[in-house]
Amino acid sequence: MTPSERLDAxxxxxxxxxxxAILARLMQGEASVMELAEPFAMSQPAISKHLKxxxxxxxxxxxxxxxxxxxxxxxxxxAAATGWLEDYRKVWEGNFKRLxxxxxxxxANQGKA
Amino acid sequence: MTPSERLDAxxxxxxxxxxxAILARLMQGEASVMELAEPFAMSQPAISKHLKxxxxxxxxxxxxxxxxxxxxxxxxxxAAATGWLEDYRKVWEGNFKRLxxxxxxxxANQGKA
DNA sequence: GTCTTTCATAACCATATTGTTATAGACAAA
DNA sequence: TTTGTCTATAACAATATGGTTATGAAAGAC
Lengths: 113, 113
Hints:
Two copies of one chain form a homodimer. The first copy, chain A, has six helices and two strands; from the N terminus they run H-H-H-H-E-E-H-H. With 113 residues, chain A is mostly helical. Chain A has a single domain (3-84), classed as Arc Repressor Mutant, subunit A. Chain A has a two-stranded antiparallel ribbon. In chain A, strand 1 (60-62) and strand 2 form a beta hairpin. The interface between A and B is large, with 38 and 40 residues. Chain A binds a DNA duplex (30 and 30 nucleotides) through helix 4. Chains A, B: It holds the Pfam family HTH_5.
């Protein structure tokens, strides 16, 4: 997978609220598919599909514990996507500085979401 | 548009290499639709569709200069996506100072972020 | 006015995404 | 072996995405 394809897969995986919620849950530690599915009004196969997309993006990996397939976060893909966005944000902040004093506005809005 | 829907739109917009290349070009400054389309082996309507998705995500805005519709980057959506990823990366890397607080916030936002 | 340039929209097609239900596989427990 | 639990896959449907060509609209140029 090329770096561009990896970014495709990562941003695609992050573009769904269910998958972002799954990542939020996994920030607390490993969880099985059933545990991950529990909060959602959605079938187990639907969750398995979401996990497959997260895995394809390298955002999670899966182990084996009897019948369970515990999922855990993998930081590398997260770091790659963050790094890409950070680079752009830095350039953009540089542009703001050159164009006007609007950097303050951007920074003020950073924490909002 | 809710914050979650905005993240959906932003990450969806970033998940395509053509749109990321358009953003890279716009980092250098404003450009018209024709100027943006020039490097791509793709029709002008295809570029217009990509610009529409970038605009819907709030990643760009468009002005008016005679027949031209110059596009420019809007930093806020970029900052929001960066901020979201940064929070997760910090938790993952263990660098976040108020780990409990952020985890609580991430959990509270599960359904909408 | 008429022409040209720039851009958007409509109609269409192929593929991908997102969910469903039904079923099969892996493994533990009885 | 039989049963039950956890997870993946197959088959299907609805909608979204990403491209095309044809056409329309807006604005300057002639």
